[in-house]
Amino acid sequence: MYSISKIANSAKVISILFLWLSFLLIIVDSLGQEKLEEIQSAEILARIENGEPVNYDRIIIEGNLDLRDANLSTSDLVKSSIYITNSEIRGNVNFDHAIMMKSIRFGKTKFGGSASFNKSQFNEKTSFTESLFNKSVSFEEAQFKGNADFGKSKFHDYVNFLHTAFTIGPVDFEDCEFNSASCFNYAEFNSSESTFSGTRFGGPVSFWHAKFSGDADFTGAFFKESANFNFIQFKASSDFLGSRFMEDLYFNSAKFDKFRISWDSIGNRLITDGPTYILLIKNFRELEQFEDADNCYFYYREWKRNSRPLGLSKIFDYLAWLSCGYGVRWHYTILLSIFAIIFFGIYYESYDFINISSNHWLKINKTNSKKYEIAQSFKAAISFSAFILLSLPPEWCPFGKEEYTRKVKLHLYCATLERIIGWGLMLMLIGTISRLMVRY
Predict the structure, then answer these.
(1) CB–CB of 214/237 below 8 Å?
(2) Listed residue (105, 164, 111, 115) closest to 138, CA to CA
(3) How far apart are CA 248 and CA 271, in angstroms?
(4) C-alpha span between 269 and 309 (Å, rounded)
(5) For strand 65-66 and strand 37-40, is the pairing parallel, antiparallel, or unpaired?
């Protein structure tokens, strides 16, 4: 009793110390957090009017940051460098048609309202790294003539980069989060490198008619909803290795060279046309991704078969699918051979049961010995079917050459048909394995 009471008291002491320690940590954390200074948006607009540098850190901007409220000496020409970091903008931001002559930086800044930079021109480096956009943001027809850095930013609402042009410097959307729909239709990535590595697209995303002139990096990107890459152009290498597509991937009329992606990541979700399928197959072969090329070819033939009307071509497609998986699935031939052996074996056994030994089979009782005889008889029929299909010599037959010859004469037409099927399956197996083993 004493020991139990002592342990209980010790536990209470530890609990109290833990609570006090947590309380002290909260106090220290709150003291360490510097209170953000609040300023009015008019103060920033006034500095922009005078062409003075805008350099603020850890502030809260009250009101709308709208260039239409600024009296610029030259319409839409912004001569000020703008650095607003670790801050919060509570109103809307409107820099439409602005010409930014110097670098712009909104690092680790929270945009509480909508942000619009439509038809703006950024002549120097532009940075929105680790920023948070709670409402819609639009860069429609904007031009970035320097580096464009959006790395690790979060977009909670609709994002619009329609007809946006990234002209010179690298484009960085690495580890971004797009939690709603995002549009990059007709966007031009003319820089040497554009990266969306590790980016998460939580809503539908569209790169319809987008163009990447330099390298495009989408490694590890995650597409939760549909992704539209119809008519996209990758003029240099593009890397999607490690990316995941959870919904449909639209890839019609796409143009690309050195397109690195794993077939497993797109598989059943790919929606494209015939020429793009062929281009993908060729691309996989050139990159020595032979297994991906085979899988892509298989699904291409499946797509072709399903799209054909019922007719002779569709029947041949079914035969090609069943017999050898369109020449890339050797195990299909093995499975079909096993099925043929069993099918013809059942036929041979049934024929003997009905036409030759029916009286004998009808009189037997269900003793263990008769069950054994039935099993042996069926086993013999299956063995005979296997010998016929594989064209094995009769001397190897376990029940003797004479019995083998008798069965062949009895089932001459059926045995001939099975042997022809066996030759065809053997040729298909050899051709398929040769094609898969010899790569060139």
Answers:
(1) no
(2) 115
(3) 7
(4) 23
(5) unpaired
Q: CA torsion sign, 366 to 369 to 371 to 374?
A: negative
pLDDT reported for residue 402: 80
DSSP code of residue 268: G
Structure-token pair, residue 120? 């703006």
Amino acid at 137: V
Question: Which among 237, 314, 303, 312 is positioned nearest to 270, based on CA atoms?
Answer: 303
For position 1, what pLDDT does the model report? 45
pLDDT at 18: 59
Q: Are strands 259-260 and 215-217 parallel, antiparallel or unpaired?
A: unpaired
Give the list of residues 6+ apart from residue 431 with CB closer than 8 angstroms, or none: 324, 327
Instruction: Name the maximum alpha-carbon separation found in the chain.
Output: 113
The 3-state DSSP class for residue 2 equals: helix
pLDDT mean for each 10 residues of the chain (440 residues)? 51 59 54 70 91 94 91 80 95 94 94 96 95 97 95 97 93 97 97 94 97 96 97 96 96 95 92 95 94 94 89 88 90 93 87 49 46 66 88 82 83 90 90 77
pLDDT attached to residue 15 = 61
| CB-count exposure of residue 25 (10 Å: 0-12, 13-18, 19+) | exposed
User: Considering Cα of 380, then 383, then 385, then 388, what sign does the dihedral take?
Assistant: negative
Under the phi-then-psi rule, with left for phi > 0, alpha for psi from -120 to 50, and beta for the rest, what region is 230?
beta
Q: Where are the alpha helices (DSSP H) in 247-329?
A: 263-266, 274-286, 290-307, 312-324
Residue 141, phi then psi, degrees to nearest 5: 60, 20
Q: How many CA atoms lie within 13 A of 250 on its CB side?
A: 14
Q: Is residue 178 within 8 Å of 156, Cβ to Cβ? A: no
The whole-number pLDDT of residue 363 equals: 45
Specify whether the CB–CB gap between 183 and 204 falls below 8 A: no
Chain position carrying tokens 């699935």: 329
How far apart CA 194 and CA 430 sit, in angstroms, is 46
Helix (H, G, I), strand (E, B) or coil at 258: coil
| Closest by CA position to 289, among listed 335, 240, 249 | 240
pTM, two decimals, is 0.80
Two structure tokens written together for 91: 């109103």
